[in-house]
């Protein structure tokens, strides 16, 4: 499956500042998610963020706060249960790229929920994190075994481009370098 920009949506799951100190390689995952969200802007791909219990965990981390068009507060681990997300998702944009924290809880449950609702979830491995690397690895393994695509942020950008003659090629390349 090729990831096409016109069929994509980017979901940033629970990148909240109070979680950051506990997440393994947190800033690397934030950098990958930011790169992906900036690329999404280049290709007119909608960006949505979720926040798990924002009263307790605070808002989306500052490095990503200005990028989503919509931020959805939630208490369920599976963001797809939120009516605001259901309303925001477009059946013509059935490929939902997922970046976020924690891989083995909210990211995984959201991917499974989206899949059950007829979407094609794609988890961006370098843009997800967990407290323990083993939890992230187990989540990626389980997701793959259940038919969820696993990619990297760079793979997504090049699939959105499709051609080095794309008018946004240089801008997209600058995000990767």
From TrEMBL:
Q: Which Gene3D superfamilies match?
A: Isochorismatase-like (3.40.50.850)
Q: Which InterPro entries match?
A: Isochorismatase-like_dom (IPR000868), Isochorismatase-like_sf (IPR036380), Isochorismatase_domain (IPR050993)
**In what residue span(s) does the Isochorismatase-like domain sit?**
8-154
What Pfam families does the annotation carry? Isochorismatase (PF00857)
Which superkingdom, per the lineage?
A: Bacteria
Q: Which PANTHER family match?
A: HYDROLASE, ISOCHORISMATASE DOMAIN-CONTAINING PROTEIN 2
Q: What is this protein called?
A: Isochorismatase
